[in-house]
Amino acid sequence: MCVVYRHIRLDKNEPFYIGIGKLERAYSKHGRKSLWKKIVAHTDYEVEILFEDLTVEEARKKEVEFVKLYGRIDQKTGTLCNFTDGGEGIMNPPPHVIEERRKRWTGNKFGKGNTYNKGRKTPSEIKNKI
Predict the structure, then answer these.
(1) Euclidean distance between the first and the last CA atom of the chain, given in angstroms as a whole number
(2) Which of 54, 66, 71, 87 has an alpha carbon 20 to 30 Å from 80's alpha carbon atom?
(3) Is 97 exposed, middle or buried (0-12, 13-18, 19+ CB in 10 A)?
(4) How many CA atoms lie within 13 A of 26 on its CB side?
(5) Over its length of 130 residues, how does the chain's per-residue pLDDT go in tens digits?
(6) How far apart, in Å, are the Cα atoms of 20 and each of 14, 15, 49, 71, 72?
(7) To 5 degrees, how large is the angle CA 76–CA 86–CA 22?
(8) Coil, strand or helix: which one is 16?
């Protein structure tokens, strides 16, 4: 069963993050993105559990609903530091996430792929074994 939660920054009394997961995740600081960490470094926050005992599907729908309601900072539509629209997987990621993944998929930070064995010949003994 899942919960839907929000983090509210106490200096402005406004939500800055909407999330889903098990109850422990709502209170965890591990595995958060840099923008979330920057906000938490400058202000205290409160965790509010919005819904409990939801199925994963129901929780995903509620997360999408609340992210749309409050809007995202990266899209200049609201106050949330969420980098996606919520729900399953990444929906509508910001450009820097797309670029980061493109580089990861091509192999290294310069987008050149794996060049470790470039120009190296495989010995015929190894080819025969393969």
Answers:
(1) 47
(2) 54
(3) middle
(4) 19
(5) 899 999 999 999 999 999 998 999 999 998 899 999 999 999 999 999 999 999 888 999 999 999 999 999 989 999 999 988 888 655 456 777 777 777 776 665 555 666 667 778 888 888 898 8
(6) 18, 14, 10, 16, 16
(7) 130
(8) strand
